[in-house]
Amino acid sequence: MARRGHRPSQAPGNRPRLWGRHAVGAALVNPDRVVRKLWVTREGAASLNIPDSIPTTYADVADLGRLVPSDAPHQGLVAEVDPLEDIWLGDLLQQGAGEGDQRPLLVLDQVTDPHNVGAILRSAAAFDALGIVTQDRHAPPESGALARAASGALEIVPWVRVVNLSRALDEIAEAGFWRIGLAGEATDTLAQAIGKARVALVLGAEGEGMRHNTAQHCDQLARLPISERMESLNVSNAAAIALYAVAARG
After folding, report:
1. What is the pLDDT of residue 227?
2. Are 198 and 174 in contact (CB under 8 A)?
3. pLDDT exceeds 80 at position 206
4. Which end of the chain is less crowded, N or C, counting CB atoms within 10 A of the terminal residue's CB?
5. Cα separation values, 80 from 27, 54, 92, 189, Å
6. In this structure, how many other beta carbons lie within 10 angstroms of the beta carbon of residue 206?
7. Which of 161, 156, 200 is nearest to 177 (CA)?
């Protein structure tokens, strides 16, 4: 299970910095997010409702560019924040335990690229997923690049980090989810595997795919019916297609 509670307080130099209108705007309206400081241009500030309680420095575009990675599209907005509070997997599963709740769950096995995880969070928000689950040691931390790719979804999609992914998959099964692992070598298509039960979609990293032990903790393996001309899809694209398939099932 995931930890619960606040992460250890971080020194200002180690806090995540978010940038861009969507990421910073979503952080400002998230009651669970602590925003420590803002750097803004006059134009950037005009697009947001900035609380008076947040220390805010007005600067020009070049100054903000020095606060973020080279060529990061900050749109005149940079925020220094505390990481979000950790979530118990059991608490997340309890949120989805209501009668008729069919929201899917996403489980990521060693997907470490922040752009991919951010894009998956964005798709999870778009298709109303219950949340995502990753292994703590093999997933990216919160960062500006991840938040930018998530386009605000980092603030609204619950993200559970667990120590042991196999045990987490056992807990997910006990909560009534049918665990479908996406694998290109599977015989069944995702449409054949979905059925009527609540679904947990399990996706592995690009190239390596799911680890053997993770696949062993799935109820069924399934593939996306892509052309033989292409070996695989980017994991974030695969997640979006799989989420759509779950949402569109009859």
Report:
1. 74
2. no
3. no
4. C
5. 10, 10, 27, 44
6. 16
7. 200
